[in-house]
Amino acid sequence: MRAEGGLTVRLLTKNIRYATTSPFTGEEKWEVRRAYLAKELVFNTVHCDEAFICLQEVLHQQIMDIHTDLNQDDEWDYIGVGRDDGFAAGEYSPIFYRPSIWENKIRDTVWLSKTPEKPSKGWDAACLRILTVGVFVHRRSGKKVVALNTHLDDRGSRSRLEGAKIILQQIEKYSAQGTAPRLPVFLAGDFNSEPHQEAYLEITSDSSPMVDLHSLVPEPKRYGDTNTFTGFDTEITRKRIDFIFLTHNASKSQKATIPTSKDDTPSWVAGGYAVLPNRFEDGVYNSDHRAVIGDLWLP
């Protein structure tokens, strides 16, 4: 997957489960889960300086804890705000990156509602929902990428569909940046939508530039489980609802090659896909979701 002049990038996305004071049966409090999660994030990004970490359901104290844990032997920063007030209240959907490797040129928060410029709830959503957007420039090569992270509603089907439409509008806006060629984009998050449901179908429709990384990596090169949501109970129905989507201009049925867009913009090349375990021998779940990892090359 490596080639002269290109970048190898690792993406990790995970819903970490907010720090509840009333845990479910089988769920440990954040104070216990924190160390397990920190080790997962550090181990899976330590060998790729260009890594991005996209998290969901992160309360303010949790984002402070994670920032501290990541910076024990490294340097990380993040973009993102609390969804309830645009500052520190409510859940974040942050994007972590190494500022010595990537320069953050643009950051934005978009509420998935009819008033996306301010804190607001959309359609039939149970909660406020946001999209975190960042434009990053690789300091050594000058290559630019657009990074997006979101967490769609778990109750409202209409809000998931409309939210997906807003996300595609933001992809169009930020990938264009007023100049050609368009910038490569990745979109990560917890979509609360299985592949046969509304948000997934909208984001991967024929009119969308986005493709599910899972579909670009041949089965022999995928690692781990299929489902990404597990809950804290082995009896719960498991689902694949956490995704990494990429701008990829091959036909929707084509597997990973080295495609280019109509304006000759190189798109991502998929190298690997994994779903990591979230429970080990001592029985502790680090979250009710499994991490999804993508290894990519950007020409």
What's the helix and strand layout?
Blueprint: E1 7-15, H1 30-43, E2 52-56, H2 60-70, E3 77-79, E4 95-97, E5 102-111, E6 130-138, E7 144-151, H3 157-176, E8 185-190, H4 198-203, E9 210-212, H5 213-216, E10 222-224, E11 242-247, E12 269-275, E13 292-298
Parallel strand pairs: 1-2, 7-8, 10-12
Antiparallel strand pairs: 1-13, 2-4, 3-4, 5-6, 6-7, 8-11, 9-11, 12-13
Gap from first CA to last CA = 10 Å
Inertia-based shape: globular
Question: Mean pLDDT across all residues, rounded?
Answer: 93
Question: How much is the radius of gyration in Å?
Answer: 18 Å
Number of strands: 13
Secondary structure class reads: alpha+beta
Tell me what portion of residues adopts beta-strand conformation. 25-35%
Outline the biggest β-sheet. Answer: 7 strands, mixed
Unreliable segments of 5+ consecutive residues: 251-264
Following the backbone from N to C, one meets helices and strands in this order, namely EHEHEEEEEHEHEHEEEE
Secondary structure tally, helices: 5
Helix content: 10-25%
List keywords for this structure.
6-stranded mixed β-sheet
Descriptive report:
This protein is α+β, with helices and mostly antiparallel strands. The protein is built from five helices and 13 strands. Strands 3-4-2-1-13-12-10 form a seven-stranded mixed beta sheet. The chain has a six-stranded mixed beta sheet with strand order 5-6-7-8-11-9. Helix 1 (30-43) crosses helix 2. The longest helix has 20 residues, at 157-176.
In short:
This protein is α+β, with helices and mostly antiparallel strands.
